[in-house]
Amino acid sequence: MRKDPRHHIYERDNWTCQYCGRGGIESFEDWNEAWLAIDHIMPKKHGGSDEESNLVVACHTCNSVKAAEMCSSIAEAKEIIARKNEGRKRWFQKFVANDSADT
Ligand SMILES: [Zn+2]
Fold it and tell me: How far is the CA of 33 from the centre of ligand 1 (A)?
């Protein structure tokens, strides 16, 4: 089987989400849950390149939350994800947990 040409990116980042630290190397379960992929730190939509310096390993959740927002660094990505997760958390509490006791 041919190796993924981006395999070395996963190895560089130790099969760990660079945004939240979720790791996928310890066990199949971790790996399966993390659902790691390669993310463009600066989305291609915003002119991000395919250079290795613009590529990081990210878990499915971070990748989905970050989406194609304008972003220029890992630190900024973390801020974007944290901000959006706050909104998601409020949404969860309002519509899913339906419980205002814990806010
Ligand atoms: Zn993550």
Answer: 11
